[in-house]
Amino acid sequence: MKKYNLKPEYIRRIRPNMAYKRIEENVQPNLVKRQFKTKSLNQIWCTDITYLIWGNKRAYLSTIIDLYDRHVVAYVISKRNDIELVIDTLNKALEIEKDVYGLIVHSDQGFQYTSNEYKAICASKGISISMSRKGTPIDDSPMESWHGILKKETLYNNNITSLEHYIQLVEEWIAFYNSTRLKNRNLN
């Protein structure tokens, strides 16, 4: 088919979705540089998105943790992985923590974190944006590790019957994690 320049009719051209394109000029340098210890609350927050998959259904969990004591500052679960998910999570965190001037928010270089909306909210609150290098998840290892623990203690240890049941388990586990579960606290 290639030799005669023939294309099957059932294949349609896929156009790139420009709404979910990373804005290169909004990529920020890595300010954290794998220094994940802080001396007090609200110095460095880490954020990322992970999939919550059950069967052929999926939801997205956007989380912000404080690197001082690794508690979850805010999280949002959505059926869509879009800019609104990250903005909602950031706004929820900013409602809880008012004194954030000088804070660093560290993330990967996902399209949500390079969006103009995310950049504008951070700039308006005096928040510095830090991003891990492209394709280097170790630069965001506290968040990656947290997602691994979450999935190990929820997904793999329970008889989940539906995506809604899984989401409920995740919400209960986050409440348990913030209040009861022992964690490696960074208290000096």
Number of helices: 4
Provide the gyration radius in Å.
19 Å
Task: Kindly report the name of the CATH homologous superfamily.
Answer: Ribonuclease H-like superfamily/Ribonuclease H
What share of the residues lie within helices?
25-40%
Structure, explained:
The protein is of the alpha/beta class and 188 residues long. The chain has a single domain, classed as Nucleotidyltransferase, domain 5 (2-Layer Sandwich). The protein has 4 helices and 5 strands; from the N terminus they run E-E-E-H-E-H-E-H-H. A 5-stranded mixed beta sheet has the order 3-2-1-4-5, with helices on both faces. Strand 4 (104-107), helix 2 (116-124) and strand 5 (128-131) form a beta-alpha-beta unit. The chain is globular and about 65 Å long. 25% of the residues are buried. The model has no long low-confidence stretch (mean pLDDT 87).
